[in-house]
Amino acid sequence: MSAFKIGINRWTLPGNWDVKTCLRVAKESGFDAIEFNMEFEGALSPATSDADAQQIRRDADAMGVALSSLSTGVYWQKPFTHPDPQVRAESLELCRQQLRLAQALGVDAILVVPGVVTPDVPYDVAYERARDALQQLAPEAERRKVAIAIENVWNRFLLSPLEVRDLIDRLGSPYVGVYFDAGNILAYGYPQHWIAILGARIKRVHVKDFRGDIGNIQGFANPLQGDVPWLAVRSALESVGYQGYITAEVGGYRLFPELGLRHIADAPLQGDVPWLAVRSIARRVPELGAVENFPPYPHTR
User: Residue 280 in contact with residue 267, Cβ under 8 Å?
Assistant: First the structure.
C-alpha cells in the first residue's frame, strides 16, 4: 500500500494566523506539508520579493514541514479566457509571478484555473485562449522547473478527462499537467475514471468530499462525509503510480480550528472504508470514532 504525503491548504486555516503559526499548527496536526496561496495582496502576492518567499521556505524547513505547491484563486477574477485582452495579459503576468514565487519557495508545482466559460466567452473561444496562454507560459515553467498544474473546477470548461488529456498532450511540455480535485469532479464525473485516464499527467491532488443529495456549492464537506468513492480513488492513484502530495482543501472548523485540523489529518476508519487523510489509510490505523461536521465548503477551488 502506498504511503502518500499529506498536506493542508492555507485556506483551511483561520485567516488571521500568520505564516509561522500556520507552519507550526500544520506540523503539530500531523501534516507532512502545507500549501500556501498567492493572493492579490498579503504575505504571498505578486509584490512579494524572492527574499521574502525564501524566508518562508527557511521557516518551513526550521519547523520541519514541507511546502507542497503554490495555489491561488486569482484566475477567477482575471482568467486566461477573459473577453478583455488587457485582462488576459494581466492573467499571464500573474502566472509568471506565481511561477517566480514558487521557485523562490522551492516548490515544483503551481495550481492554475485554466479559464472560465461564460455567456460572453463561448466554450471554443475559451479553449483557444486557454491553450494559447499555456503555450506562452510553458517555456517560463520549464525555465523555472515549476509545473503549471491546471485544476478541474466548476468553470463549465474542460468537462471531460479525454479533453484535458488531449490538451496537455498537444501542449507537449512536461511542465504543464493537471491538479486533480477528487471532490470537484463528483458533480459531473467519477474521480477514479479521471485518474486512470490522466495518469502521469497528474502533478498534484486536492481532496474534499461532496454530497450529491445537496448537489450544489453547499454540498462540499470534510472527506468521509460525502459520496466520493475514496477506496476507488486511492486504488486509482496507486494504479497510475502517483506518489505526490494529497492536499486537503476544506472549510475547516469555525470553532477550535486546531481540533479540526487534527481530524482532517487523521480521519477515522468508517467501517472498512479507511481514506482520507491518507495517513489513516496508508500509514496508521487510528481509533474508531465519529468525525465532526465541517461548515459548508465556501468555494469550488
Answer: yes
User: pLDDT confidence of 298, banded at 50, 70, 90?
Assistant: very low
CA dihedral 171, 175, 176, 178 (to 10 degrees): 140
Residue 298 · residue 251 · CB < 8 Å: yes
pLDDT digits (tens, 9 = 90+) for 274-286: 444 444 433 433 3
Q: Which residues, listed in sequence order, are joined to residue 247 by a DSSP beta bridge? A: 7, 206
In the chain, the amino acid numbered 99 is: L
- What does the pLDDT look like over 189-200, one tens digit per residue? 999 999 999 999
C-alpha cell at 37: 496561496
Residue with cell string 491546471: 150
Mean pLDDT to the nearest integer, 227-256: 91
Q: Could you give all domains of the chain from N- to C-terminal order, each with its CATH number? A: 5-282 (3.20.20.150)
User: Whole-angstrom Cα distance, residue 235 to residue 240?
Assistant: 9
Contact 23/60 with Cβ under 8 angstroms? yes
Backbone angles phi, psi at 184, to 5 degrees: -60, -30
> Quick check: helix, strand or coil at residue 149?
strand
C-alpha cell at 181: 480535485
